[in-house]
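Hi R.,

Quick one: here's the XkdX family protein sequence you asked about.
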Amino acid sequence: MDDLMIQFVKLMAQLNADITNYVVLGAITPEQYKEFTGKVYVQPVTQPQA
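And here's the predicted structure, written out as tokens:
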């Protein structure tokens, strides 16, 4: 199942979809993000909720 998710995320990256959330959710690693997109993963900054 995990391999299927990785293949799905890789396909999404090939389709130029934003796959940042897949790293946040733990579906792929930051290294896989770089492999799939060619970009270094930068953790998104979240704003505290008021």
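Residues 2-37 form one domain.

Cheers,
M.
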